Amino acid sequence: MSYGVLLTGFNIKRLTDIKTEIENEFKGVFGDIDLNPDSVFGQIIGILSKREADLWEVSEDVYLSEYSNSAEGVSLDGVIQNNGLTRLPATKSTVPIIMTGTPTTVIPIGLQVRVTTTGELFVSIESVVIPTEGSIACNLESVNYGKIIAPENTITEIVTPLTGLDTCTNLVAATLGGEIESDIELRIRRKVSLRIQAVSTVESIKARILQDVAGVTSVTIKENVNGTVDLQGRPGHSFETAVTGGSNQDILDKIWELKPAGIETYGNVTGIIVDSGGVNHTIKFSRPVTKYIWIKVSIELNLEEVLPADGIDQIKNAMLLFCNSEFTMGDDIIIQKLYAPVFEIVGVYSALIEIAATDTIPGSWPTLQTTNIAIGYIQLPAFDLTRINVVIL
Length: 393
What we know:
alpha+beta, GMP Synthetase, Chain A, domain 3, 4 domains, six-stranded antiparallel sheet, four-stranded mixed sheet, 19 strands
């Protein structure tokens, strides 16, 4: 049998084959010898076989490190450089907060405040001066990298003492950062980037908008290939691009650059593009409609484990983090998925989850259900701690 790099790939020589080969070579040199594992020859052959097997495994790893589907870590970083890509670094969460206090008080860079619900720290990244009105907005970032949750009105504890600074609060939830891009995510992004080389295909248009338009976080494209208007109102031979993030004009410009000639665009945002000949063209795309998601978690406690004192807050925070990472534009809310973050918390024995979705935020909780919620492809599910309720049965 042949080993090493073959036309069919890399065929590794295993320990048993190596041991057999060395035993035969020893017999050829020394004759009829004792090859029992406890004998001197057996021990020597065992050591040599193991060392050679280790080298074969290293060789296989080197071979696999040359391909994007099998390379890992730094090796994968090297492979994707051939496509002009680099791994996305971890980022910090950011949030603007309102500082109130004595006018002329200087808020320095590096002032620390705390999220009261989680204990996470945020730090000011700009220096501002409190005006005569007594309050000013200041931009902060989390001390730690990743998805640091800070719902509205939860950054209220000033950690760095400062004379003249009285209170602080965030009127909006923090924009979540991200962990360093995983190998799986990097491989997916590489595949998406390769589609950019295509011309005017759905996947190419999607990939180019994601890559080229600053601030865009998600793109979904639906096309109507028929000659008549479809059920969603798209004209025949048209496509609709639903985009979150980015500026309207940048998106309109990119769609005009990428769209096939003679194909109509459709959506709830309309703009005018002037071509190189001075002719006006109407370009459309869609902004997703927000669907506010409500979640109620009813739990029974495990008698053998103690729910932490802040267990309810832990469940709510775990649920919010999970939902923000699991569901995005057009993703149906699958109720079974929501059980995963609940049982990450010690002390939970059983749980019942009920959910609802509304187009606005009513004054009281809506009617809940225990079945999945369908989200339209241009709808964006929105989650917040104020719409997550945890009760102990």
